[in-house]
Amino acid sequence: MLVKSAYIHIPFCKRRCFYCDFPITVLGDNSGNNYSPWQQEYVNFLCQEIMATPQENTLDLDTIFFGGGTPSLLAIEGLELILSTLHQHFNISKNAEISLEIDPATFDLTKLKQYQKLGINRISLGLQAFQDNLLEICGRTHRMSDINQAIDYIHEADFNNWSLDLISGLPYQSLDDWQDSLAKAIALQPKHLSCYDLVLEPVTAFGKKYSEGDNPLPLDEIAANMYCLASEKLREAGYIHYEISNYSQKGYECRHNQVYWRNEFYHGFGMGAASYTDNKRFTRPRTRKEYFAWIKEYQKNLGNIDINITSKNDQLLETLMLGLRLKKGVNLCEIKTKFGQNIEAQILECLGTFLEDKLIIFNENTHQLTLTDPHGFLYSNTILTTLFTKLETI
After folding, report:
1. Sign of the C-alpha dihedral, residues 370, 368, 5, 385?
2. Beta strands 92-102 and 122-128: pairing type?
3. For burial by CB atoms within 10 Å, which of 37, 264, 333, 356 has the most?
């Protein structure tokens, strides 16, 4: 399997949101668009990493995703240098999907047009909520006035392929709040929406303050209703529920993220970024100092890293875990070809109860295994845990 995708981590943020555990560098609320020494240093090291990465087994890049952090805080000069370095070292295909995460109040119309000139053809707008009180509770730096201005900029720039993010299950968030957010999102008609359920990571401010199922978090039943409501309302509005947390208009599924869900190979570059190449997964250090030191060693070793190859069983479990997130699920004929003829019967035996309860469907003619929408998706963690427990020793 050849590599044709790259993830680029841009760590800069105005401040850390209360649910976030990503590796970031805080610039402060007054951070502007200047190509500061901090940004220049980071971009220079990141480009050194790209140039030190072996080119073997890499095709022209077909998808590039700038995530963060808040990539829209990076000055245009930095983005231009990164893209130029990627093109110089790997080449970027003519029809590549190049995505950039952006936040309200971190860009203007001029900057959007500069993104387009650089070849960035997909943007993902991090809204999270349409209620100022919830944005404040989350530690977000933008408010509804910033959201409205951001949408105006997107329309003025005629940026066709854009996505927006929402989070359900937030502290003090009601079902009415969630329904209001869904209605407002649908009215904006983005090509793509990501609707994530809040996860309480222990190291975050929310993780330290709240416990699952406790007030002011929505009750489990309400959180489940939020998930089902999103699936219902967005599908009624013409969106395809193509992945557990993602919806799109036809033809606007995120090509880059599908690389992950199909368990295909990809490069990762930047602080805390993960790579999956040659059946090897590895993650870079999460702090700037350790990441810069790691790159120096990486260059000395000519891009070679001593890491363990993912075992056949781990590859099987990852293929099932990631593939079942997709609406189309996984094909057990393809899995038999790669992992052995007996594996289909073992998988179906593990899933017997869920098949009976119609949470998962197996098509005997096509051998396609899929979770039902929305209830199979809603119980995906339970289903995958069962698979992992019973298949981990095969």
Report:
1. positive
2. parallel
3. 264
pTM (2 d.p.): 0.96
Task: Say how far apart CA 42 and CA 213 lie, in whole Å.
Answer: 40
Over residues 308-356, the pLDDT tens digits come to 788 999 999 999 999 999 999 999 999 999 999 899 999 999 999 999 9
Q: Is residue 305, in this structure, part of any structural domain at all?
A: no
Q: Per-residue pLDDT tens for 222-232?
A: 999 999 999 99
pLDDT band at 30 (very low <50, low <70, confident <90, very high): low
Tokens of 325: 């997130």
CATH code of the domain containing 240: 3.80.30.20
| CA-based nearest residue to 64, from 317, 270, 360, 203 | 270
What pLDDT is recorded for position 309?
85
Q: Tell me: do 241 and 125 sit in the same domain.
A: yes
Task: Please give the single-letter amino acid code of residue 55.
Answer: Q
Distance of CA 225 to the CA centre of its chain: 23
Distant-in-sequence contacts of 254-260, Cβ < 8 A, 24+ apart: 254/97, 254/99, 254/122, 254/163, 254/192, 255/62, 255/63, 255/97, 256/5, 256/7, 256/63, 256/64, 256/65, 256/97, 256/99, 257/65, 258/326, 259/4, 259/5, 259/63, 260/322
For 55: left if phi > 0, alpha if psi spans -120 to 50, otherwise beta; the answer is alpha
The count of structural domains within the chain is 2
Tell me which residue range forms the domain holding 111. Answer: 3-261
Report the pLDDT averaged over residues 61-88. 98
